[in-house]
Amino acid sequence: MGRVKVNGEVVTLFGTTIDPEKDIVLVDDKLxxxxxxxxxxxxxxxxxxxxxxxxxxxxxxxxxxxxxPGLHPVGRLDKETTGLLILTNDGELTYALTHPRHxxxxxxxxxxxxxxxxxxxxxxxxxxxxxxxxGITSPAKVRVIKNFGQDVDLEIxxxxxxxxxxxxxxxxxxxxxxxxxxxxxxxxxxGELGMGEWRELTTEEVDDLKKxxxxxxx
Length: 218
Hints:
- The chain is of the alpha+beta class.
- It has a domain at about 105-185: Alpha-Beta Plaits.
- About 15% of the residues lie in helices and about 30% in strands.
- It has helices at about 90-100, 120-125, 165-170, 205-210, and strands spanning about 5, 10, 25, 30, 40-45, 70-75, 80-90, 105-110, 140-150, 150-160, 180-185, 190, 200.
- Strand 9 (about 140-150) and strand 10 form a beta hairpin.
- The chain is globular and about 60 Å long.
- It starts with a strand and ends in a 7-residue tail after the last helix.
- About 30% of the residues are buried.
């Protein structure tokens, strides 16, 4: 007893059932490889909530993708943020992408209306206190990719997933975001995927996402 955990909870009852497409099963704290399901990538438009259901009846990303049993968003993009969102019913992949010890780079393009000073950019690279109990962010990689007066774009690479993190980071240094897009997760990029469009990931793409987290399956 006590060797098996389902979704972080120790299993104490014989005959406990699981959903192999959603549940995360560990034996002796090692991940059990269960049959995988479907994984898709969505180019999320603005105006959609990243959740399966919304009590306020707002539009959710689930209305943009096929009705696949167990499909759910992995992580979040806030309502006005656009770009790459992964949805899956593969519990192993969900574990890989959301466990805190797995550092997966996520690349964003943030549009702001003024070029930050070198000192402000350096603050982001060292980590800034975004408040609300979330403390200081891990160091980010930041570079200016467009600078035309009040038309400035920054490329920001982070591996954390704190709520509205990029927006809060830039607000902290005095540069509120005008538009925010996520363009890459790990080695997975949006490519030619149009706004509001989705496609199923290949087996190789899913395997690559799992490999970069160094999952040990049994």
